[in-house]
Amino acid sequence: LRRHTANGERGLPNALFFLNTTNPVSPFSRNVGLAYYGTDPLRYSSRTTAGEGNVTLNANWGSWSGNFNAKHSESTMVSLSDRQTGFGFIPLGDNVDPFTTDLTSLIGIDVGRTRSHSFTTLADVTLTGPLLTLPAGPLQSTVEGTLVWDGLRGESNYSAFGDRLVHRNQQSIRGALDIPLTATDGFGAALGNLSADAEYSRFHYSHAGSVGNTTVGLTWEPRPVLRLHAEYQENQQPAPIEILADPVIVNRGVRMFDPLTGETVDVTQIIGGNPDLLPQKTEIRRVNALLRL
Fold first, then answer.
1. Of the candidates 250, 251, 242, which has an alpha carbon nearest to the alpha carbon of residue 273?
2. Which of 6, 224, 244, 262 has the most CB atoms in a 10 Å sphere around its CB?
3. Residues 24, 184: Cα–Cα separation, whole Å
4. Residue-level pLDDT at 219
């Protein structure tokens, strides 16, 4: 069980006040806008409470080994953020002296609140051992099956976005082979140690469909001082449930530096999940060499 608290400040609230020429203290010959910053910064705070429990069992049957792992975790995060309720010109009455009066109370500020509660339950079984014996050595195999249940509920009082509730189940199976082709102390000794490896996994996600991951590689060690390795991976991965369903936080009037114009401007910052994100696909090609001196 763990708890984390964070507090921060996001700068000063600001507003443009409309000063009419009819105001007796106005030194201007026409209507003007007065830029004003409040005296107290906008504050942000969050509190996260999380817990996790797991059970692991290991077993061996001759040259085979097995592993079972079960885990459950939950996390709750509550955040509070000061926000301005209005932007644009705020008219000043003729009885208000903006040069001697603290105008902070005229800047509308309320508190935005978000809450997210997530849980994950996982069960995983892995078996590893020699599938058969090749001339260069045993062909090692791994088979793994996994079941995952995820859920996240995001609540927000930012009415434009509302609450979100996402549940997702995941089933996956993975198979891997480590294939010895030659060995320095056996078959094909003149070539050194040469081996290939291959792995394929298939995942099914509720609401996202099925995706597959593939990895193939080749390792050659012609001499003890030199090792060469080449690998190709193709992976597909749906967006994490937190990115899909996290509650949305809208912060207006956030000061940001624009590197294109060289100016600091006020922007509306939107943070949170997007339920329309599609799975991402990555391809990795890797070649490396290890020289032992």
1. 242
2. 244
3. 98
4. 96
Q: Does residue 75 or residue 264 have the better pLDDT?
A: 75
Burial grade of 15 (CB within 10 A; 0-12, 13-18, 19 or more): buried
Half-sphere exposure of 118 (CA within 13 A, CB side): 20
Exposed e or buried b for every residue in 137-147, given b needs 16+ CB within 10 A? beebbbebebe
Calpha distance 121→265 (Å, rounded): 44
Neighbours of 103 (CB within 10 A): 17
Q: What is the pLDDT of residue 162?
A: 58
Helix, strand, coil shares of the chain as percentages rounded to 5? 5, 70, 30
Q: Which amino acid belongs to residue 216?
A: V
- Type of residue found at 180: P
β strands within 62-108, DSSP E? 64-84, 89-91
Give the DSSP letter of residue 163.
Answer: -
Predicted model pTM: 0.66
Nearest to 83 by CA among 104, 113, 106, 103: 113
